[in-house]
Design goal:
The complex is a heterodimer.
Chain A lengths: L1 E2 L22 E6 L6 E6 L4 E6 H5 L14 H10 L8 E4 L6 H9 L4 E4 L2 H13 L3 E11 L2 E9 L2 E9 L4 H11 L8 H7 L8 H5 L2 E3 L5 E3 L9 H6 L2 H4 L4 H5 L12 H29 L3 E5 L6 H10 L4 E4 L8 H13 L19 H10 L5 E2 L3 H10 L3 E5 L13 E5 L6 H9 L9 E5 L3 H4 E2 L14 E3 L1 H6 L9 E2 L2 E3 L5 H14 L3 E6 L11 H10 L4 E4 L2 E4 L5
Parallel strand pairs in A: 1-6, 2-5, 5-6, 7-12, 12-13, 15-23, 17-21
Antiparallel strand pairs in A: 2-3, 3-4, 7-8, 8-9, 10-11, 14-24, 15-16, 16-22, 17-22, 18-19, 19-20, 23-24
Helix pairs in contact in A: 4-13, 5-11, 11-12, 15-19
Chain B lengths: L4 H13 L1 H12 L3 H4 L7 H5 L3 H13 L3 H6 L1 H4 L2 E5 L2 E8 L8 E5 L18 E5 L20 H13 L6 E6 L1 H12 L4 E5 L5 H7 L22 H7 L6 E8 L9 H11 L3 E9 L7 H14 L8
Parallel strand pairs in B: 3-4, 3-5, 5-6, 6-7, 7-8
Antiparallel strand pairs in B: 1-2, 2-4
Chain lengths: 569, 315
């Protein structure tokens, strides 16, 4: 039986962990059917949550579901994490209401389960709000498209999410940002961060021209003028293949032909990046202001793929419009399964809230034995050490680059010190070294600083207690001290996508940075995801070794096992 | 249960989803699924009985929304990771060596704006695959792998690319749909390919210019025509050639973009007149597509190599 979204829940059920039939329940959320297939499994009896992204096992970045493929991999990962069997899953909740072919396959995989469809943007909004721990908040979910919508503004209170406005996908600002990225020749979906990184190199000369074609109307909808809406050529309309044509519009066409990589990047390209970034920040501020006026909330939740843009989130933080802000770290479709499951549990089943996301370490762990085996197989010479933090810190202090794998892997697009490449931030040229030699990517891509929480305010400017900065979801301004002591992590506009590391939620990484600080006096390291260009973040020891062998790093540390680079050795 | 192959996978699956479900899935996976083997079962049922092209477009929009097509299209650069430089111009392309011993080189031409009518670029078992990306023409969405404003510089670029990837004497073939179908025919006929497999191709580009309105600034075909030179004339080319490559052509019964009578049939009449070897399948559907697949193209090219049909059919 398929359950529809039937009731805006406002229940009095206080029996946490008990479903309406009086038994605990295993609820499986599934989503990312367009890209980034992921699963979330929640045991309502214990409140335990497991999450997994398919790309980590398949090694296909932004894993898209192919016809006939085994869909169980991330589900089985979740089951293993909770110690349950898939056949005991009672409810399967999709984070998409549209009919995807894979839904039929899932129905066959779970013949006894009940099924529910959650509207895509409801799932985004629910994921943000129900994971925020806030009792009440304005929720802004800004996305490319899904189930025909591109933006949803809602008022979250307790178990309820009341929709205030919904923008259709014809007026999608997320798609406009993608179109600009495509026009710049930086890639497609998933490459928007490159545009964000390029923006500080340009001037927003097109901002006014852009804003003449964009409005947030009095009903809280984004309205794009025809010049900014996707244009389909007569040819494409006739042929019925609108998908690629959605990546152009009249405004961008007027700027000239789009760039194809590796054609040179010019000032005009930089200016377009700067312009679209500034426009995004303006649109987001207007949406938040509209929602705040409507609800009176001084607490904000940001979700949807666009809120992966840490600069835009940082602008909201800087504006001081809200007393507290939560930005879901896996705000894109990577977190849609969690949102679908939480929406179902709290809104449909009416169970009280029990979950607040304060870390993202939900992935798998690497055993030392597996690390040794993988290293030996690759021709490295592994050695076990008692203090991997000392080993890493010493290498970093000498200017080395370390592949760092500790504990359970991070969910989402950001590596937060469990699957990271870590480097000395004191050398300004480290940015170019890692971009060129390690990650094989564009020269302009910035790197994030990870700073000890107790010293964070010395290096970065942000309001105390407003936002959780532990998950790299906000870009903030760097202080003169940061620019002086950690220049490799400060972008050209003097900002940084900071990760504040505290000893409670991220003790291993805190210890590493702490030891580096003891050696150098700088409580900051450069932290970037442990992957090569075009591949997902490493998950297993084998993945880490493979990437290490292809990149120019000095040291690989997996748990307590250390190996020097063959090149160096 | 590593190391136990099929049985191990079955046991693991049974543990995960239960014995009966695992058995059902296993049988389904192991036995032939009629939907995959019978072409008629792949008919676009909605399209077959539709009378409104708008309704078809609406259905396609819905289908696109509930698929990874947008994602794939936006990441088109990743599909063509390699870069070829020739006379100051670049062309991105993909090259996939044959999974087994190569029997030839297949050039896969995409449709307008990089649309892959024949499915994603992937390695073939017995043929090397070369897939160029045409970023020339109107809004950089494609020049029919020929050129712009009457100048066939893209054709030269493509031929230089093929020469760079084709071993001396290696058999070579062309395949693609729509714009890629035209390109397959143009390059295949003009430069002597050993076989061509196409789906819903344009044939008469001069007629397409008129169809789209010669004054229409958003007419992609118009970009092919210069002050002096016109668009490439495939029919004239085919008529000039003494020999035509073996051809397999697939066409929807009601292709509103390239109606059979206005395009493919004109070429087939040339083949008929010159006794060229061709196969034709009319797919009982409307819309600008067909049921052609890379797997079938591979079978066709292998058949050419195995049976060596003559380039001129003797009665």
């Amino acid at each position: 039986m398929t359950l529809r979204w039937t009731r805006p829940a406002n229940h009095d059920n206080t029996d946490a962990g008990i479903n309406h039939r009086g038994r605990p329940m295993l609820v499986l959320g599934l989503g990312g059917f367009m890209h980034d297939y992921n699963a979330a499994l929640i045991d309502t009896a214990t409140g335990r949550v497991a999450m997994a992204e398919a790309e980590r096992a398949s090694r296909r970045k932004h894993h898209t579901i192919q016809a006939g493929e085994d869909l169980m991999a991330p589900i089985e990962t979740c089951c293993a994490a909770l110690g349950v069997k898939a056949k005991h899953i009672e409810a399967v909740v999709f984070g998409h209401a549209d009919h995807f072919a894979c839904k039929d396959a899932f129905r066959k995989l779970f013949p006894k389960a009940r099924f529910a469809d959650i509207d895509h943007h409801r799932a985004h909004a629910a994921g943000g709000f129900f994971a925020s721990g806030f009792d009440e908040a304005l929720v802004v979910s800004l996305d490319g498209f899904g189930d025909g919508a591109s933006c949803l503004i809602a008022h979250g209170r307790g178990n309820t999410l009341t929709e205030l406005s919904r923008t259709d996908d014809k007026n999608s600002f997320g798609l406009e940002y993608l179109r600009a990225t495509f026009h710049l020749g930086l890639g497609g979906y998933g490459s928007e961060g490159k545009t964000q990184g390029l923006a500080p190199y340009g001037k927003p000369v097109l901002f006014d021209a852009y804003m003449r074609h964009i409005a947030v109307d009095e009903s809280g909808h984004i309205v794009l003028a025809p010049e900014l809406q996707s244009t389909s050529s007569d040819l494409a309309v006739e042929g019925g293949y609108l998908n690629t044509q959605i990546l152009t519009n009249a405004f961008l066409d007027e700027l000239g032909p789009r760039r194809i990589d590796p054609e040179p990047m010019t000032d005009a390209h930089n200016d377009l990046a700067a312009s679209i970034q500034k426009v995004l920040e303006e649109v987001l501020v207007r949406l938040c202001a509209w929602g705040k006026a409507k609800t009176g909330c001084d607490t904000l939740v940001l979700s949807g793929g666009v809120s992966m843009n840490s600069s835009a989130n940082g602008e909201i933080l800087k504006q001081g419009m809200f007393k507290r802000i939560f930005a879901l770290p896996m705000a894109s479709d990577r977190g849609i399964a969690l949102g679908a499951a939480l929406a179902f549990i709290h809104q449909d089943l009416g169970l009280p809230r029990f979950f607040a996301l304060d870390h993202v370490f939900y992935g798998g762990a690497c055993e030392d034995k597996a690390a040794e085996k993988a290293m030996k197989k690759a021709g490295l010479t592994p050695r076990r050490v008692a203090d991997p933090y000392e080993e890493a810190a010493q290498t970093l202090a000498k200017g080395g680059i370390v592949g760092w794998v500790q504990g359970r892997s991070e969910l989402g697009a950001r590596a937060l010190g469990h699957r990271s490449i870590v480097a000395d931030p004191r050398r300004a040229e480290m940015k170019d070294i890692i971009n060129h030699r390690v990650k094989h990517r564009e020269w302009f891509r910035p790197f994030a600083p990870a700073v000890l929480a107790e010293r964070a305010h010395d290096y970065f400017t942000f309001p105390e207690g407003v936002a959780d900065l532990s998950m790299m979801t906000f870009t903030v301004e760097a202080t003169a001290l940061a620019a002086q002591q950690a220049p490799a992590t400060v972008h050209v506009d003097n900002t940084a996508r900071v990760q504040v590391v505290d000893g409670r939620t991220n003790p291993e990484f805190h210890r590493l940075i702490g030891r580096f600080a003891e050696l150098t006096g700088v409580p900051v390291v450069l932290n970037t995801s442990f992957n090569d260009k075009g591949e997902p973040i490493v998950e297993t020891a084998e993945d880490a070794v493979r990437t290490f062998m292809n990149a120019d790093m000095d040291l690989l540390i997996i748990g307590n096992v250390v190996a020097e680079s063959v090149r160096k050795g | 249960m590593p190391g136990f192959g099929l049985l191990g996978r079955f046991v693991a699956k049974a543990r995960a989803v239960g014995f009966r479900t695992a058995l059902r899935q296993g049988l389904k996976n192991r036995l032939l699924d009629p939907r995959d083997t019978l072409p008629l079962a792949r008919v676009n049922r909605a399209g077959l009985f539709a009378v409104s092209a708008d309704a078809i477009h609406e259905q396609e929009k819905q289908a696109i929304r509930a698929s990874s097509l947008m994602f794939d299209a936006s990441r088109v650069e990743a599909t063509y990771p390699l870069i070829f430089e020739y006379q100051g111009r670049i062309m991105r392309y993909a090259f996939r060596p044959a999974a087994k011993a190569s029997r030839g080189l297949v050039v896969l031409f995409h449709g307008h704006d990089a649309f892959l009518h024949m499915g994603p670029v992937r390695a073939w078992d017995d043929f090397d695959l070369l897939a160029p990306w045409d970023t020339f023409g109107w809004k950089r969405q494609g020049s029919w792998f020929w050129g712009e404003k009457g100048v066939p510089f893209v054709e030269e670029l493509v031929q230089a690319l093929i020469a760079s990837r084709r071993a001396p004497g290696q058999k070579w073939f062309c395949t693609g749909g729509s714009m890629g179908g035209f390109a397959s025919l143009w390059h295949g006929i003009k430069h002597g390919a050993d076989g061509v497999y196409v789906m819903c191709p344009q044939v008469d580009l001069a007629a397409k210019i008129i169809d789209f309105g010669a004054e229409n600034k958003n007419n992609p075909y118009l970009h092919l025509k210069g002050e002096i030179g016109g668009p490439p004339d495939l029919l004239a080319l085919a008529k000039e050639k003494a020999e035509l490559p073996p051809l397999f052509l697939i066409q929807n019964q009601h292709d509103h973009v390239n109606p059979f009578a206005d395009h493919a049939w004109k070429l087939l009449e040339v083949y008929n007149g010159k006794r060229g070897w061709y196969g034709l399948r009319i797919h009982p559907s409307i819309g600008h597509g067909g049921d052609g697949k890379q797997e079938e193209a591979e079978m066709f090219f292998a058949l050419i190599l195995d049976k060596a049909p003559p380039k001129r059919f003797e009665r």
